[in-house]
Specification:
It is built from five helices and no strands. By secondary structure, it is an all-alpha fold. The longest helix has about 70 residues.
Length: about 150
Amino acid sequence: MEEENELSVVEQNCPGCSGLEGECDICFVVARSDQIIESLQIMGQNQSENLLYEVASKMAVDKVVAKKDEGKKTIKKLRELAQEYTQLEFTTQRAVRTIRSYGKACKEAAEDFLEEGNVRELLIEFGNIKEAKDALKDVTNNLSLIK
């Protein structure tokens, strides 16, 4: 009885079926395994019929186990990707703050230059681009790790 509940749950939640108009091959077999088993039981107690019954039962259970394992792998990959994208988001936010700070400092230096005519401070501020470049490199590196 527990296996039947497990089969119907897997059949309803199959990610393979979502892109199809009907059922995928695995769901097709799993959905009809009860009918196959019932038919074999009705046919009698012959040795070959019992063997077919056992094989059909094992196939249905094996398919469910395989789908369950596949689902676990997919969930694990999604969790890993979520962590990587979280790291990318933090790195990107840090880069944006760094670049804004650089832009603000350059703007202030440009305004001071226009008011006071001090070229030296302007050139120094525009030359402090290393932090902004490094922040962008970090974002690019994190993104390439995800791909």
